[in-house]
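Entry for the shared binder. Reason: the reviewer on the internal report wants the predicted structure included alongside the sequence.
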Amino acid sequence: MITLNFSPDPKTPMTALFELMHDQPWFFITTTTLFGLLVGSFLNVVIHRLPKMMEAEWKRQIAESRCEEILPPPKYNLVVPRSACPNCGHQITAMENIPVISYLALGGKCAACKAPISARYPLVEALTGALSGLVAWQFGLGGMAIAALLFTFALIALTFIDFDTFLLPDDITLPLLWAGLIVNAGGAFTNLHSAVIGAATGYLALWSIYWLFKLATGKEGMGYGDFKLLAAIGAWFGWQMLPAVILLSSLVGSIIGIGLIVIARHGRNVPIPFGPYLALGGIAALFWGPQLTRFYLPGY
């Protein structure tokens, strides 16, 4: 008589890793935080290079419209060329590119020429890591955490690009909007009906304010990128969250704007980017959306 003994296949390393993250939430939070630090390093590249890539594309389109001869530009994207010191051209090695740690080890200076490195690089990395850890803690292992991480990464990139250039690139805002609708097709953060209305209402709300302000003053009070960003936030969390996002972003923006005028003698006619404050409202909606909504929609 032949007896067949079947033993379960050994777990793959990936399966074991997922089980560990599922069974030990602290491990998932720690792993996600470390992953966020790495993503923060990449976001620094996006924040610096994407506006330059957009500018190069605009110049190319203008040259084409004028039938001017276009010389092939040097290859420049989010991957090529390698990151280098803007002062001496020293290429950043892998050991010099460890998030936060390398900055501290180098004393905030280039390894070659000792020129100071902006503290914003480790700030973006630390912020991305911290928010990633919060996402892991809030949502746990699963699809919602992945979606929330993508939303968070996009808002961080948009925030600092807007600070630098007063631009909110379509390359980020429009995919973010469509991603919100796709995520909510399965009812992740809200139902699809609320998401669609939220996207339309978010865009039209700021579009209406823009035109009312322009008709009253003859000036432009904000850019079209702000409309698209609020539409994206509406697509992610539904129309119910829009009042809280608009109120919070306007309140924080007003406080900071008044502070700049009073303390830093920031001229009243000097523009202030609104995208970072909308992003702050989006982060608040991500983590505390239901609590905020209950203030003005008690039965929701």
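Summary line for the report: DSSP finds ten helices and no strands in the chain.
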